[in-house]
Specification:
Elements (H helix, E strand, L loop, with lengths): L1 E5 L8 E5 L9 E11 L1 H7 L18 E9 L11 E4 L2 E2 L5 H5 L9 E2 L7 E5 L3 E3 L6 H5 L1 H15 L6 E4 L5 H13 L2 E6 L2 H9 L4 E4 L3 H11 L4 E4 L4 H9 L5 E4 L12 H6 L3 E4 L5 H12 L7 E6 L3 H9 L6 E5 L3
Parallel strand pairs: 10-11, 10-13, 11-12, 13-14, 14-15, 16-17
Antiparallel strand pairs: 1-2, 3-4, 3-8, 3-17, 4-5, 5-9, 6-7
Helix pairs in contact: 4-5, 4-10, 7-8
This protein binds NADP nicotinamide-adenine-dinucleotide phosphate (NAP) and zinc ion.
NADP nicotinamide-adenine-dinucleotide phosphate binds next to helix 1, helix 4 and helix 5.
GO molecular function: adenyl nucleotide binding; anion binding; oxidoreductase activity, acting on the CH-OH group of donors, NAD or NADP as acceptor
Organism: Haloplanus ruber
Keywords: NADP
């Protein structure tokens, strides 16, 4: 089978399509003929050599978390899925018996990690992580859901928002950002989205943002956001100076949910404002398999249409990462291998 492997951790030019042996499922596993795998900034961190999870000794490395396709074969002891089933992978990997797994939510697992291997024609996965796809949900659409929408969904749960509340989403045009805007709309939560690009913001408004603010310098955004209102919560996937911006504009008692650091790995916060304002900063990573099942239901019922910017054939996976790196995207980028 062919795989779009990272052969060097030097950015998008480090992706090469290579031949590998087709995996066979072991006990509790299934192989999936991948129809679509969306890419995330997470994969780009790895490709840029900026992730502690992968180093040059791991090369060639096949990334790709968000796998949708058709079960090819199942290993011993697998009863819940059969060859031919259309499925979506929940990329969570958990131990199943630490205190956090027992008490839940499962994404708190002490040895939590993520599946990698979807940027290939066939992926070998834990069968219990496969979610059946209803007929009305195609593989490309499904592949958009796991990392970006799952993360945003879980963050919104943790933000404890009520209908009519106001949510601030700095960087509302990428995977997590668009997902947060669309899911806020599903919840009846008003939202403010930002982007460096005015033209992208027209689409963000059409996707459900109630307010949009153009700009990329947190200082410039501060006044414009404050003039709209004091957000009840902030979805922060940018980190850096955007943390201070979000904390500053947020209302008393507001919640900032943090999942990323695209704009910087450290942030300064005003401690007095934090405690005097009864504000909360909450870290969050991915979500639960049940969250993902809920998202599949929302797509099946027509309540959510994940925004897919472009699809790329497996051969052009490097180009997909270049597009992400250049911020030339609005929504998800999906690599397809043809169903
Ligand atoms: N912890 C978790 O479970 C988890 C899960 C998913 C993602 N993440 C993290 O969350 C972040 C977003 O992931 P993603 O896949 O959604 O990424 P993405 O699609 O590449 O996000 C692009 C968005 O980020 C904005 N952006 C990019 N660089 C920026 C900068 N230097 N300053 C300001 N805005 C910038 C873009 O704004 P423009 O419109 O202005 O270009 C766009 O809105 C990543 O850091 C990722 O690692 C974490
Ligand atoms: Zn565990």
């Amino acid at each position: 089978m062919r795989a779009a492997a990272f052969t060097e951790l030097t950015g998008p030019n480090g992706v090469s399509v290579v031949d590998q042996s087709t995996p066979e499922p072991g006990r509790g596993e299934a192989t999936v003929d991948v129809a679509a795998c969306s890419i995330n900034h997470h994969d780009l961190w790895i490709l840029n050599g900026a992730s502690a999870m992968v180093d040059p000794t791991d090369l060639p490395f096949v990334s790709g978390l968000d796998v949708a396709g058709t079960v090819r074969a199942v290993g011993e002891g697998v009863a819940d899925v059969d060859p031919g089933d259309r499925v979506l992978l929940c990329p969570n990997e958990t131990c199943g018996d630490c205190r956090f797994c027992r008490e839940g939510p499962e994404n708190l697992c002490a040895s939590y990690s993520l599946y990698h291997g979807g940027l290939a024609e066939t992926a070998c996965v834990e069968a219990s992580r496969l979610i059946p796809l209803p007929d009305g949900v195609d593989a490309t659409t499904a592949a958009a859901l796991p990392t970006a929408y799952l993360t945003a969904y879980h963050m919104l749960r943790r933000a404890e928002l009520e209908p009519g509340d106001l949510l601030f989403v700095p960087g509302a045009t990428g995977g997590v950002g668009v997902a947060a805007i669309q899911l806020a709309d599903v919840l009846g939560v008003r939202s403010i989205g930002t982007s460096a690009s005015a033209s992208k913001l027209e689409t963000v408004a059409a996707l459900g943002a109630d307010h949009t603010v153009q700009g990329t310098d947190p200082e410039d955004l501060r006044e414009a956001v404050a003039s709209i209102g004091a957000p009840d919560a902030v979805i922060n996937h940018l980190g850096g100076e955007f943390t201070d911006l979000g904390m500053d504009v947020m209302r008393r008692g507001g919640r900032m949910i943090v999942c990323g650091r695209t704009a910087g790995p450290t942030s300064e916060i005003d401690i007095a404002d934090l405690f005097r304002g009864h504000k909360r900063i909450i870290g969050s990573t991915m979500g639960t398999q049940t969250d993902l099942e809920r998202l599949v239901d929302l797509v099946a019922t027509g309540d959510l249409s994940p925004r897919i910017d472009r699809t790329f054939p497996l051969d052009e996976t490097g180009e997909a990462f270049r597009t992400m790196e250049e911020r030339d995207t609005l929504g998800k980028l999906v690599v397809t291998t043809g169903e």
